[in-house]
Specification:
single chain, two-stranded antiparallel sheet, 7 strands, 14% strand, elongated
Length: 198
């Protein structure tokens, strides 16, 4: 059994996902107050029950053997004041993903990118190399003064010669966008790369 706090936009949002009945043992928390337990109630040990400190939204402590995949994005970190179901393991607290590094070394980036596989089966490293080469090929007939040729040459030189890659570099943002890598995925890649010893 697991206990996790889920956040829904509203009671209607919750009911649309559970039209028949709530999850077994679910504890509802709406606008900071447990719907089924006033503040004056007492727990099994006789101590007053304090409503959870939740002020915005509709929360449910879901109980079950496993969390459906479609609900994983609704999990929020638990608070000490959140309700718990006696006899069940306490709610899991999602780990803090940590701060996203502002920059990583070229070696760290490329090692991490080699292990990141895109939906088309290519590694992010291979796809990036092919993308930059394609931009060079597409502008090869243009004069060096042409803005498109300049941009292609600059991107290629940055990729090849930069000692570090900054998270906010425009070429990196463009590559991620063209290859369909989200901001969250890029952040995760930077965190992972920063742990690589080179």
């Amino acid at each position: 059994m697991i206990q996790v706090m889920l956040k829904f936009l509203s009671q209607e949002d919750f009911r649309s996902r559970y039209p028949d009945a709530p999850p077994p043992g679910a504890v509802f928390v709406e606008l900071g107050t447990r719907w089924n337990q006033p503040e004056t109630d007492h727990g099994e040990d006789g101590a007053p029950v304090v409503p959870p400190v939740r002020l915005d939204g509709y929360f449910v402590m879901a109980i079950g053997d496993a969390l459906p995949e479609e609900l994983e994005g609704l999990v929020v970190p638990s608070l000490p004041s959140d309700p718990v179901v006696p006899g069940e393991p306490p709610p899991a607290v999602p780990p803090d993903p940590g701060t996203v590094p502002l920059e990583i070394t070229r070696a760290q980036a490329r090692v991490a990118m080699a292990a990141y596989i895109l939906p088309d089966g290519r590694s992010l490293l291979t796809a990036t190399r092919e993308l930059l080469q394609a931009q060079l090929d597409a502008t090869a007939a243009l004069p060096d003064a042409d803005p498109q040729r300049i941009a292609a040459l600059q991107a290629s030189e940055w990729w090849t010669a930069a000692a570090t890659y900054r998270r906010d570099h425009p070429v990196l943002l463009q590559i991620a966008d063209l290859l369909g890598v989200s901001a969250a995925e890029t952040n995760a890649l930077f965190r992972e790369a920063a742990q690589i010893v080179t």
